[in-house]
Amino acid sequence: MKLLLKLAWRNIWRNKRRSFLTLLAISFATTAAIATRGMQLGTYAVNIDYAVNMFSGYLQIQREGFQENPSLNKAFKLNKLILSILKKNNRIKSWSPRVLADGLISYKENSQGAAIFGLNPQTEKHTTKIFTRIKKGKFFESDSSNEIIIGYKLLQNLKAGIGDTVVILSQGFDGSLGNLKFVIAGTVKFGSPGIDGMGVFMPIKTAQELLALYGRIHAVVINLYDTYEIEKTKELLSEKLHGTGLTVLDWGEIMPDFKQAIELDNVSGILMLFILMVIVAFGILNTVLMSVTERFREFGVTLAIGMSQIKLMILVFLETVFLTLIGIFLGNVAGYFINLYFVRNPIEFSGELSSLYEEYGFLPVIRSTLEPSIFLNISIAVLLISLFVTIYPVYKVYKLEPLKGIRYT
Predict the structure, then answer these.
(1) Which of 118, 175, 188, 298 could form a disulfide with 99 if both were Cys (CB 3.0 to 4.6 A apart)?
(2) Best CA proximity match to 221, nearest among 151, 142, 91, 126
(3) 201-244 pLDDT, tens per residue?
(4) Distance in Å from the first CA to the final CA of the chain
């Protein structure tokens, strides 16, 4: 085997120009794939982190079936068992209870449908970044005041202003109709048509009074220290809450449209990488096939003096593996530094493009990542493709007869 390794290494450098061109192709493909995939996944991570921290949280505890069919009656109490489970989990950074309901908001002669969110301002500050989305005015500080924050488009539709008094009407938990007067303390802009056009944020105790919930809530929003611990934390919480009628949802289940948009874009990115790999595969195939064909006479002599075809096939495979591994190594090094640069210096859009991104709730930024799985997956893919396209040249060596090889010109 040592002899085959030496021969394979020496054969690579017999035609240095061809070998360098092959290395360049493999290195470029590896670098391009790592850089492209890094920026794609890095940008996804930034936007997921932004969206999750902004409002939904990484995980939520809800009554079973509430996400599919929201109902005021699917409320629960934040009892000692739930609090104990949340406090004892060291992966959980913070949590905040919420009340969710529908209602009608009126100002003078104007009325609009409202999506009501009851929040605890003290716990919400440590769990999400809703407070950073204030467009005008201020956020309420007490969990039982009569101040509310509404979407900026809803304020425009009501033809009201900050400081005006509005009336909110909603059906209560007990079936009664509740209504209370509120003062508009400020407006928010999320980039979400639903929240900007219908969102009404009010203190959680005031919401419970309006909806006759008597201390009940509809969700517990959970923030984590490490985003890569979502699945483990979800499984652990689900196990602890088994049999209570409660379920644990991750951000993808809470925001299915957002997740589907990322998955769709991810498919297009994978397709582009596949096309790049196919182009590189043909380049490697051409190089290896030329190398094998040029040496048919040499192979014929080698076979004639007693070398087995199996060893000759292994020799061709080893040459390809050496070239591919060197190209992958160089591509990984170059890809690492490219990704590192964009991690430290993300591309930030400005002007109209920035406004367009923010309008739809996305950050106007492209950032990369140094996630090890990217380097590993791309490297394995390039190596497998290289070995796959070598099958045909090796087959030609397998079918080669000594006499035909010697006579080949």
Answers:
(1) 118
(2) 126
(3) 999 999 999 898 888 999 999 998 887 788 899 999 999 888 88
(4) 30
Phi-psi region of 107 (alpha: psi -120 to 50; beta: other; left: phi over 0): beta
Q: Nearest Cα to 262, choosing from 190, 147, 362, 406?
A: 362
Per-domain residue ranges for the chain?
2-52+259-407, 65-244
Range 142-160 average pLDDT? 88
Own/partner contacts of 103-106, CB < 8 Å, gap of 24 or more, are 103/168, 103/169, 103/170, 103/171, 103/200, 103/210, 104/168, 104/169, 104/170, 105/150, 105/154, 105/158, 105/166, 105/167, 105/168, 105/169, 105/200, 106/158, 106/166, 106/167, 106/168, 106/169
The helix or strand, by DSSP H or E, that contains position 284, with its residue range, turns out to be helix 256-294
Instruction: Indicate if the pLDDT at residue 338 is higher than 90.
Output: yes
User: Is a pLDDT exceeding 80 seen at residue 302?
Assistant: no
385 vs 342: CA distance, rounded Å = 28
Q: Are 107 and 162 in contact (CB under 8 A)?
A: no
Dihedral (CA of 42, 44, 46, 52) sign: negative
> Based on the number of CB atoms within 10 Å of its own CB, is 116 exposed (0-12), middle (13-18) or buried (19 or more)?
buried
3-class secondary structure for 295-313?
A: CHHHHHHHHHCCCCHHHHH
Alpha-carbon span 300 to 295, nearest angstrom:
8
CB atoms within 10 A of CB 257: 6
Q: How far apart are CA 375 and CA 37, in angstroms?
A: 9
Given a contact cutoff of 8 angstroms between Cβ atoms, the answer to whether 218 and 116 are in contact is no
State pLDDT tens for residues 208-218: 998 988 889 99
Question: Residue 109 corresponds to which amino acid?
Answer: E
Q: Is 115 helix (H, G, I), strand (E, B) or coil?
A: strand
